[in-house]
Design goal:
The protein is of the alpha/beta class. The chain is built from 16 helices and 13 strands. Helix content is 39%, strand content 19%. The longest helix is centred in the middle third of the chain and has 16 residues. The chain is globular. 45% of the residues are buried.
């Protein structure tokens, strides 16, 4: 149904739509799907269609048009960028609600039963960056095993399976790991051109040590479990929670990946998750109102709600009330991101 609506935008604009369309992040997808299923059970049938396309591709679809041929909701594992916001405005999508639904942590997971490493951000950067400092200059990454980076790390081959460029998880990982560690390197600070510094701090390896896995986080988990010792996977905390019988996460800067450390912000790779909603569509797609009301409910987003049981780190009670006010008042973004 989603594909049909997107493929025939003229038809979708010509008549009201019964089904709300949600696209975007694979990390947020399980939570939005659970809310959609709850709305369907209450309404006697499917009322919300949720697709997992990745945050980047999702924003391209969401911002393409203000008409009913485009999605009503964008799931995002990071905040909308200034460029994406401008794209929305150019295409007439100018009343956008921004709803932070809770928190997630990016985990560095390995097969259960292996010794669990404690990575620093700098060690992760040195393992996966395309270029690293050596001898006072930036060179092609020569490391093939983690122990070459530090004797404190396991003697595993460097093989990391991570999200593709279309993923908001990839954007967040690059920002939180590569951006943080790379910017502190004297060899990078010495580069005069800001564009070249940005390139150095965002480029991942292309020699086989890093592999893009697509938008299917379950596929990453299978490769970790079935692969050689020390294969690492990068994905959201909720997927780790669902597979703790097979995988476990490494510590980052001495902090374990738990719901408590993510909610408090102590876990270095914690990040907020978002919904972006076209406010005018609340009057054009009745199911959209039901979807948002269910999402913001205590039974879904509360500390004991069903989304927490799926692995979402929920907002505090105070923050939940702010979310509920945003949904009730249909509050839109008033400032450009960044």
């Amino acid at each position: 149904m989603l594909l049909a609506a997107l493929a025939v935008p003229g038809l979708a604009r010509a008549q009201p739509r019964e089904v709300a369309l949600v696209t975007g992040s694979s990390t947020v997808f399980p939570f939005s799907r659970a809310v959609a299923e709850a709305v369907g059970r209450a309404g006697g049938g499917p009322r919300v269609q949720v697709a997992s396309t990745g945050t980047v591709h999702g924003f391209a679809q969401f911002c393409r048009s203000a008409g009913l041929g485009a999605p009503d909701v964008q799931d995002a594992s990071r905040r909308i960028t200034a460029g994406e916001f401008s794209l929305c405005l150019r295409n007439g999508v100018n009343e956008i609600m921004e709803i932070p639904i809770g928190f997630d942590g990016i985990v560095v997971a390995h097969r259960r039963g292996l010794p669990s490493p404690d990575f620093t951000l700098a060690q992760l950067w040195l393992g996966v960056a395309r270029q690293v400092p050596q001898g006072g200059r930036m060179v092609a990454n020569p490391y093939t095993r983690w122990r070459q980076i530090s004797p404190s790390l396991p003697d595993w081959p460097i093989r990391v399976i991570g999200p593709p460029p279309s993923s908001g998880t990839r954007d967040s990982f690059v920002e939180l790991v590569l951006g943080t560690a790379c910017a502190a390197a004297p060899e990078v600070r010495a580069v005069a051109e800001s564009a070249e510094r940005a390139r150095l701090c965002t480029a991942l390896r292309e020699d086989g040590a890093w592999t893009d896995a697509g938008e299917d986080d379950q596929a990453i988990i299978r490769q970790i479990v079935e692969g050689a010792d020390g294969v690492l996977g990068i994905f959201g905390f909720s997927f780790l929670e669902a597979a703790l019988d097979r995988i476990e996460g490494a510590s980052i800067e001495g902090v374990d990946d738990t719901a408590e450390t993510i909610a408090s912000g102590r876990y270095p790779l914690a990040r907020p998750l978002y919904l972006y909603v076209k406010r005018p569509n609340l009057d054009r797609v009745p199911a959209l109102r039901e979807f948002l009301a269910e999402y913001a409910s205590e039974r879904a987003l509360g500390r004991e709600g069903y989304l927490a049981r799926l692995g979402l780190v929920p907002p505090s009670p105070i923050r939940l009330r702010v979310i509920q006010d945003t949904v009730r008042d249909r509050t839109i973004m008033l400032r450009r991101p960044g």
